[in-house]
UniProtKB/TrEMBL annotation:
A Pfam family this chain is assigned to: HTH_IclR
PROSITE patterns: HTH_ICLR, ICLR_ED
PANTHER family associated with the record: HELIX-TURN-HELIX TRANSCRIPTIONAL REGULATOR, ICLR FAMILY (PTHR30136), HTH-TYPE TRANSCRIPTIONAL REPRESSOR ALLR (PTHR30136:SF24)
Gene3D superfamilies, per the entry: 3.30.450.40, Winged helix-like DNA-binding domain superfamily/Winged helix DNA-binding domain (1.10.10.10)
Protein's UniProt name: IclR family transcriptional regulator
Keywords on record: DNA-binding, Transcription, Transcription regulation
Tree of life domain: Bacteria
Listed InterPro entries: ArsR-like_HTH, GAF-like_dom_sf, HTH_MetabolicPath_Reg, Tscrpt_reg_IclR_C, Tscrpt_reg_IclR_N, WH-like_DNA-bd_sf, WH_DNA-bd_sf
Domain called HTH iclR-type: residue spans: 8-70
Domain IclR-ED: 71-257
Length: 262
């Protein structure tokens, strides 16, 4: 639809209300919704009543506020069931693997882990422990570090409140066993412009990763490629990361996100 296509005011206002509630940290008063969206209060109350009738909004009478209802949650579940991220990402990742001749992955955050949802192996590539439905600690992988570096610092701190939060596969060469050390790695990631992992998952293998962002700039996934350290000189890493970033940005755009920036 072009920018000059006619809008349906009620539909536009309804979607704006739902988007505002979805981005809010909690239920909101109708007056606040009206103020933030610049809509008449009477219009907001009318639309909220209709949304409530269909289950997309719930009213909390004691608090005099409105929040998302079960029907909105069901939409989210339906989105997950249809696997749009995987469907859209698979051909993009396949193209990246073909161009670089390296294995590639698409992973999503799952608690303190990353969950691999797409795995594309390049011919002749070294064997990997990653595969579809495999989970690995966020702080050990390039995908996980790309996601963590794109999160607010308070969110990362909440995920890793103490040393017991850090799980390791083997002796961690980078010694990420406390938040301060993780923070250093993530700050380096932001400065560098891409996530880098060398030997933390499998000795002799390295990975670079970039986040995939949604419309709020929130990291919903990450794309990474893995290769033998001995075959790729350090000065080639930025070029690899640029290719990964282009793929991540394309995927971000196709899920109505924005350019990926660690």
């Amino acid at each position: 639809m072009s920018d000059d296509s006619p809008k349906v005011p009620a539909a536009d206002q309804t979607l704006r209300i739902l988007s505002l509630l979805a981005s809010s940290r909690g239920p909101m008063a109708a007056s606040m919704i009206a103020t933030q969206l610049g809509l008449p209060r009477s219009t907001v109350y009318h639309l909220l009543a209709t949304l409530q009738e269909h289950g997309f909004v719930m009213h909390l009478p004691e608090e005099r506020r409105y929040g998302l209802g079960l029907a909105a949650v069901e939409l989210s579940s339906a989105y997950a069931r249809q696997e749009p991220l995987t469907r859209i990402g698979r051909p993009l990742l396949a193209g990246l693997v073909d161009r670089l001749g390296m294995s590639g992955h698409l992973a999503v955050p799952h608690g303190r882990d990353v969950l691999y949802v797409i795995e594309e192996r390049a011919p002749g590539s070294p064997p990997l422990i990653t595969d579809v439905d495999v989970r690995l600690p966020l702080q050990l992988t390039a995908s996980g570090r790309a996601i963590l570096a794109a999160l607010p610092k308070a969110q990362v701190r909440a995920l890793f409140p103490d040393r017991e939060s850090f799980v390791h596969r083997h002796e961690d060469l980078e010694g990420i066993d406390r938040y301060s050390r993780l923070r250093t790695v993530l700050d380096d990631t932001s400065t560098r412009g891409y996530a880098l992992e060398r030997g933390s998952v499998t000795a002799g293998l390295a990975s670079v990763g970039v986040p995939v962002l949604d419309h709020r700039g929130w990291p919903v996934a990450a794309i990474a490629v893995t290769f033998s350290e001995s075959r790729v000189p350090d000065d080639a890493y930025p070029g690899l990361a640029a290719e990964v970033r282009r793929t991540a940005e394309t995927l971000s755009t196709r899920i109505h996100g924005r350019s990926a920036r660690v």
